[in-house]
Amino acid sequence: MYHTTTSLPPLVATERYGSPRAFAEDSQYLRDRCWQLVAASTQLARAGNYVAVTLFGIPILVRNCDGQLRAFRNVCAHRHCQLFDDGVGHADVFKCRYHGWNYGEDGRTRKIPGAKNFPHFDREHFKLQCFDVEVCGQLVFVRLDPAAGPLSDWLGHYGPALAQRTDAAKW
User: Fold this and answer.
1) What is the pLDDT of residues 110-154, one digit of tens each?
2) Is the pLDDT of residue 165 over 90?
3) Residue 100 — left, alpha, or beta (φ > 0 → left; ψ -120 to 50 → alpha)?
4) pTM over 0.90, yes/no
5) pLDDT tens-place string over residues 44-59
6) Of 126, 138, 145, 167, which residue is most buried, by most CB within 10 angstroms?
């Protein structure tokens, strides 16, 4: 049996495997530069269907807004209450359960109970943060940082094969 007297240097430094700093750097890289798989399009087939998830500590809501998938930070612009619990569901009205603020597909408020109590309300400032959504086959992805580039660039040459393999007609 052959025994080597030398070894190759590690490709990844050992501290990258378990240090809190490495974890934070990797999490930031994944959050800022990668598309995140959040749902199957079948979960969002009807208007009003939603999927709520938490990605890297950020609550995300993906909702079917009259046939268009939209993604928002799942936090009310008024008192910062989580709009929907994590999971899959349906809600005819896109509204905060705390004070009842209603939101539209652009993240702006549509109806504010007691609106006269907010005489100088700025709809542009107090709106839900929006994220980009793209679909590949039946997989729904969200991009938390617009600088990450389009999903097709991120998937590269795997995109068409992934789309074909996740087609419901073939499952």
Assistant:
1) 777 777 777 777 777 788 999 999 999 999 999 998 888 899 888
2) no
3) left
4) no
5) 999 999 999 999 889 9
6) 138
pLDDT tens digit string along 39-92? 999 999 999 999 999 998 899 999 999 999 999 999 988 778 899 999 999 999
Alpha-carbon gap, residue 73 to 84, rounded angstroms? 11
Q: Which residues of 11-27 are buried (b: 16+ CB within 10 A; e: fewer)?
A: eeeeeeeeeeeeeeeee
C-alpha distances (whole Å) from 130 to each of 23, 45, 60, 103, 164 are 26, 20, 9, 12, 28
Q: What was the pLDDT predicted at 2?
A: 77
CA 20 to CA 31: how far, in whole Å? Answer: 16
